[in-house]
Structures are given as C-alpha cells and as structure tokens.
Amino acid sequence: MPLEFFILAGIWGACMGSFLNAVAHRRVRDRPWWGKERSACESCGHVLGVRDLFPLISWLILKGRCRYCGAKISVRYFLVELLCASMGVIIFWRWKFSWACLLSAVGACAIVLSSLTDFESMDVFDEFVIFPGLLGLIIRIAGGWPAVLEGLEGAAIGWGIFALIIFLSRGGMGWGDAVFMGGMGAILGLKFILLGLYVGIMIGGFWGIAMLLTGKAKWGRHDSIPLVPFLGAGCFVAMIYGPEIFQYLEKKIYISFQVWPF
Ligand SMILES: [Zn+2]
Question: From the CA of 121, how far away is ligand 1's center (Å)?
Fold first, then answer.
C-alpha cells in the first residue's frame, strides 16, 4: 500500500479530530454545533481564519497562542488532533479499503465524541451515540441479515449489561455508559462488544491502580471518573486486534468465531 494513503488517512483523522473537538466543545455548552457559527478565539472572540484552523500545524506554528490576542489555546486541541490522526492511520493500516475500515471509522468518531463530552462534563449525549450506531447497522446490511442481527444483539447486550448494573446498584452508574455501549454494540456486534467491554474494564482497572500507586487517588474516595474513555479504548482495541484475539481463543477452546465485521 503506497505511503500517500497512510498520510491521507492521518490528515483525514486530524481533520476529523479538529471537527469533533469543536462539536463536543459546543455541545456541552448547549450551543448548536451544526449551524454556520464560525470558530472563534475563546478569549478575544476574533473569528478564526483558514490559516488558524489547520489541524496540528496551526497550533504548533502559533505555539499554542491566539494570533490576535495572544491568549493560550488549550493543548487539548493539539492532543485530540494527534490522537485522531493516529487512529486514522491505525484503522487504515489494519483494514485498508474495506467495510471494516468504514465501520471502524464510524466507531472511532463515536468513541472520540463521547469520550470528549464525558471527560469535559461527565455527560454522554444520546445523538452522538445513536446516530453512529444506526450508521453501523446500515453498513452491516452489506454483510447480509446475520451481520445486522449481530449488530442488534451487540446493541442489546452492550446496553443491557450496563442497564443491569444500574438496576442492581440502584443508580450507581450513569445511563450515558449504557447508551454508549449500546451504540458501540451496534457497530462492533455481539462478540466484539463483549471483548471491548472486557479490555476497557482492564484498562480502567490498570489506570485506577496506577493512580493509587502514584497517590493521585486514594482508597475509599468515591471520585466519579469518566468511564467512556476507558470503554472507548477497549472498543478501539477490539476493532483493531479483535480478530487476532479471537483467533488465539479459537486455538485454545476450539470454538469457531465469525470474523469481523461480517
Ligand atoms: Zn484571541
């Protein structure tokens, strides 16, 4: 595969990162994100021009400061664009031009959007999950009825596991996590959403232990931490390495799993 395609995948990812960042940022402030509102400096309100809006590059050239008033621009913009560029390259490297690539790209958008809003305001917005989930089911039509059914089962189980936890713990967890895993289940399908859940909880657990060891968190303190970034990371691992993990399991337990996505 020529190098140019990977560079394009990275640029596409960085642009998506820039866009999703703005969408998430506006949504948590209850501002419309779909209209004609131009991006403007948070400090001086100066409308940003084309040369201020190049993902990654503008932030680096401006050294993280507004061109017009010199106010600091959060490193968050740079980091999210870098993360999304990396995700774009990884997805394309893994899936080339395929349905799996398209499905992974939709999933990655849902993961980034909901992680950003959860991180910023502990909110997961239904439309940022349900729309990608429906898109995932539509893409699954390409794999025929069993692939759509797999997506529906994934949505039901992804949502259902968290609904059960909420029911048993009497509201100890937010509905946002349930909605997020429902939407991701539609994209990933039943087996891969379960893998994503497992990996996500493992990553969250290691993160928690690291926080305890470094003294950044203490036992018994109920800080609410956003869960979606961890679940999202688990789902991303499932989208990229799921087939290899299931192949390994097949050799161990002699059960055959259908390949992803269909
Ligand atoms: Zn400014």
Answer: 24
User: What residue numbers bound the domain in which 54 lies?
Assistant: 1-96
Taking CA atoms, 187 is separated from 70, 143, 150, in Å, by 42, 12, 9
Name the 3-class secondary structure at 40. Answer: strand
Note the pTM of the prediction, 2 decimals. 0.92
- Among 96, 119, 146, the domain boundary falls at 96
Confidence of residue 257 (pLDDT cuts 50, 70, 90): low
Q: CA-to-CA distance for 114 and 124, rounded, in angstroms? A: 6
Alpha-carbon dihedral of residues 62, 68, 71, 77, nearest 10 degrees?
-50
| Residue 66 alpha carbon to ligand 1 centre in Å | 5
Pair 135, 20 in one domain = no
Distance 163 CA to ligand 1 centre (A): 44
